[in-house]
Structures are given as C-alpha cells and as structure tokens.
Fold:
Amino acid sequence: MRLIERLLPHDTRYDFIRYRLIAFGITALLILGSITSIVVKGFNFGIDFAGGILVEAQSTTGPADLHGMRATLGGLGLGEVSLQEFGTTGRDVMIRVQRQEGDEKVQMAALGKVKEALGEGFSYRRVEIVGPKVGGELVRDGVLAVALSLLAIAVYVWFRFEWQFGVGALISTFHDVITTFGLFSITGMEFNLTTVAAILTIAGYSVNDTVVEYDRVRENLRKYKTMSLYELLNLSINETLARTILTVSTVFVTVLALLMFGGDVLHGFSVAMLWGLIIGTYSSIYVAMPMLVYFNLRTGKDRAEDEAKAEAAAVGEKAP
Structure:
C-alpha cells in the first residue's frame, strides 16, 4: 500500500480524458475484431457444450495418478480428453471425453476403450453420455446468463445514479464481455462452463470498478459546482487511481498463482480472469468515464442554476 502511495500520490493530475478518442478507436477495433472472429471462426467448445462422455472414476489402489491417466487416455485416439480431481482423498477423478462421430453404439465403444485402458484399479460411480441437444441447451443457458447479467448491471447503475451512468456501465461491461469471448475465439482455447463462470466474474468485477469511479463523480458533482465536466472526470479518475491499481494488483497476483499452479482444469478460467482484470480496468477509465462527456451530464453548476430559476419562479408566482 505504501509503495503504491509513493508511486501514485493523492495529488496526481493525469489527463486521462484527453486521450478518449484514441481509446474509443481501440475499443471499436477490439469489439469489431472480437465479433468478426466469433462469427467467422466460432469457438472451440469443450465437452460441456459440444457433448461427449462423462465418467466419475475412483481409484481402488490409492491416490490417482492424473499425469499417467492423461498420457494413457490421450493415446486412445478419442480426441479431447480432460481429467479433473475432486474430493479430499485424491482418489476421485472426473473424466470427460469428446463426443465421437456416430450413434450411441459408437459412444459406448469409446467408453469401453476408456475403461479397458484404465484397467482393474478403478471403480465407476457415474457414467453419462452428453448428447448434442444437452450441449445446445447449455450454450443457450450460458448466453442467457451473460445477457441477463448485463441487463441487471445496467438497471442497477441506472437506479443508483442517472441514465447516463447506466448506459456507460452497460457499454463498458459489454466491451469487457465481448472481448473476452473474442479472446477465446481468436486463440482457440477451450470454451466451457468454467469459461462462462469467468466471464460472469469479469462482468461483476468490471461494474464494481466502474461504480466506484461513478460514485466519486457523483460526490464531486456536489462538491465542485463550478468545475467543468472535463476537469471533474479527470479529478475523479485520479482520486480513485490508487485504489484501482491496488485492487487489480492484489487480484492479479492471486489469479496468476491459479494460472501457474492450478493445472489444465483452471487454465481457461485463469486466462479469462487475467484478461478481464486488464480490460476491465481499461474500460472503466477509458470507456465508462469519457462517455459521460457526450451524454450531456448535468454539472453541479447546471443544477444550482436550475434550482435558482425554480426559486425565482416560485417567488414570482407568490408576488401579487
């Protein structure tokens, strides 16, 4: 905390709003590039969405050797195979195998290969074959969850502040979400339910950062009635800058640890979160705040003049 205070003293006066047009250009390119990649290339859907075989296996000889199991199952020629340890004993493993081309008999044959490769040292507590219909329903539910979260965020900010703030928060959060979708589309990383959870977390983090800055704008509108909106927005960003960087740094270190030591299961989640921290901080400063310049946001001076006019009109009506 002291280091950040030394690097960013309370009286910083960086002119962030000055570069709003450049920031808007970068934002437009990111959104356009993301949408183009999603439409043209699509996603590398994981088993959750594309369908496949789900197996809960328990080692009967001690803790499961995930590395050895990955090597064994990966050599069966069944496509994507993911393993996830769960429980507290280290013996329970969740195995996902991508859906094979063909009918249910083909899926059962693939399941037989998995059991044969693992051998006698495992018992099977649960076996499911996820069809494309279930995967399609999960895709629809995931899109619906993201859309409803964006709508709820906009409504919350709208009621807490004014409609200009609600629109700014909605566009800023949409920017963070769509560019995260674009990241997974462009890189071809696996897109699964864990990724959807990361995107919803990013939306929540982004709007939290935006609300903190918007709240400071609202306070300063009451405090500095003669200050121009341009200067007031810059002041509000600078006053919350140390808090923003401290929060981002703390979460960044935590997520970086997940990326380095969380294994394959948390890789997509960690990458999405790291990207979300960076892009969310950028959008709060360079998207949500500068947009208020163009939304005809009323300053404290404007409100004081309106109140004075209203009082004068009231006095005129009472006069005989």
